[in-house]
Amino acid sequence: MIAADRPDRPAARLCVVDDRGQTRHLPRAALATLLAPGDLVVANDAATLPASLHGWHHESESPIELRLAGWVTPGDPTRFVAVAFGAGDHRIRTEDRPAPPPLSAGDPLALGPLGAVIERVLDHPRLIQLHVLGTRDDVLAGLARHGRPIQYAHVPQPLALWDVWTRIAADPVAFEPPSAGFALDWALLAAWRRRGIGFATLTHAAGISSTGDPALDRRLPFDEPYRIPERTAAAIARAKTVGGRVVAIGTTVVRALEAAVEANGTARVGDGIAANRIGPATRLRVVDALLTGMHQPGESHFELLRAFAPDGVLDRLPAALTAEGYRGHEFGDVMLIERQAIGSERRNGSASAKAA
């Protein structure tokens, strides 16, 4: 999905916003040198499901697309929360897609080889709870054969499933890719290891980034399950002990770690649900820096950045990035933003003093 390293694309770039609000513009390859021994990088290893399902609504005899957007029960591939669209595909802008036909509980759907039933229409006419019929193996096989990755009009060519898997992808539980992870490759991880920088993973079921409906978009992100391994929690505790920074690769990692925070600033082991919305009122207790893509004001991802930096810094950022020619995160450009003092409270963990 990240196109920055294809031959027809310019080299990917990195914007660094340090803990004093100062901005630098570097090649993305500079990530290999910006962290310090004792720092810990935490990434999301969720693989992406083929979560776009085209099919037929029997009651209206109309085409429909469902974009799976959440788990009813984590890990149960027969019941989902989904966002419904009418006719069309990703080449039409999401906000321009027609509405689905009127939906009701009990409506049967044909989704390629899969049969499904709407269990409930939730508190929006396009948001449903879906029961996909069959055994776990039947449903997973049907998704693999018929499903497509969710994608948007800015990438017109159809994406294959492997286009939306990062190099560290493991369990297929995400509905869209944890896209900051596309900045990672084996050479970068090896360079960090040589410099004494730790690396750990968690699994967070990243949800959808847009529904095309302003009212629904304001509710993003939905609740998302996560799992923090014991080795990751232990690595965070070690980094905190030696004064290292915890650097999150992507907003999903921030959300999971801050949902699982213990009183001592480390992370709780095991499964949980990230129901937290991170923004300007959030006091970050685990994460010291974030690597993320380029986001626009008003998006939930951009609002999360307000936990890292004051409004005065962030409000200047979009114009500066546009002037420098940065591209959206789907095309490889990324930002490393370090936690700053906000208001009168100076938060612990200076980042720029340790940057190489």
As for the number of domains, it is: 2
Task: Kindly report the average pLDDT value.
Answer: 90
What would you say the CATH architecture of the largest domain is? 3-Layer(aba) Sandwich
Q: Kindly report the CATH topology of the largest domain.
A: QueA-like
Q: What is the CATH class of the largest domain?
A: Alpha Beta
The fourth-level CATH homologous superfamily of the largest domain is: QueA-like
Uncertain regions: pLDDT < 50 for 5+ in a row? 1-9, 344-356
What class, by secondary structure content?
A: alpha/beta
Query: What is the succession of H and E elements?
Result: EEHEEEEEEEEHEHEHEHEHEEHHE
Radius of gyration equals 20 Å
**Percent in strands:** 25-35%
List the strand order in the largest sheet.
Answer: 2-1-17-16-14-3-12-13-15
Distance between the termini: 30 Å
Could you estimate the helical fraction of the residues in percent?
10-25%
Short synopsis of the structure:
This protein is an alpha/beta fold. Helices cover 19% and strands 26% of the residues. A 9-stranded mixed β-sheet has the order 2-1-17-16-14-3-12-13-15.
Summarize the structure in words.
By secondary structure, the protein is of the alpha/beta class. It folds into 2 domains: 216 residues, QueA-like (3-Layer(aba) Sandwich); 95 residues, no CATH class. The chain is 19% helix and 26% strand. A hairpin with a 2-residue loop joins strand 8 and strand 9. The longest helix has 13 residues. The radius of gyration is 20 Å and the shape is globular. The relative contact order is 0.19.
